[in-house]
Write a structure and sequence with these properties.
about 150 residues; about 15% strand; 5 strands; alpha+beta; five-stranded mixed beta sheet
Length: about 150
Amino acid sequence: MSTLSNAELNALAATYRRPIRHGINNDPNANASAFVNENQVFVNFGNLFPDGDAEIAQTLIHEMMHCTGFSHPTRRNPDPTLGQSCAAPNPPLFDCPFDNGVYYGTQPLQAELCIAGAQSDLLLRAVDKAADERCVFDEEGEATIYRT
């Protein structure tokens, strides 16, 4: 079952029919980045490719969703000093995988779910991913996935 609507899937398919340029991202903490509604994806091959096929596919579909025109806010990590943890998600305060909140409920993050296969495998990878990555938009609208 898809986590994207038919309209979102159609928009993504239309984006894949556009010429997409690939650039290099040399930020040692970034896997990839893309501008919303643009036709270029910047990849840090040294970071991304060792993570394996599923991570590569998830990152690229996430960035293609930005090229399609979808965005998301900067992820709000739980603050353990305040007793916050994804073991007890609280979407109004912080973001956790599968909370369907303001970050993980967005199209780029939902598109990642289309890649990973079995839900149990996906849950483990999403929790690991959330611990090590964050996606941030800069003042020019470029979205970058950073390793923390």
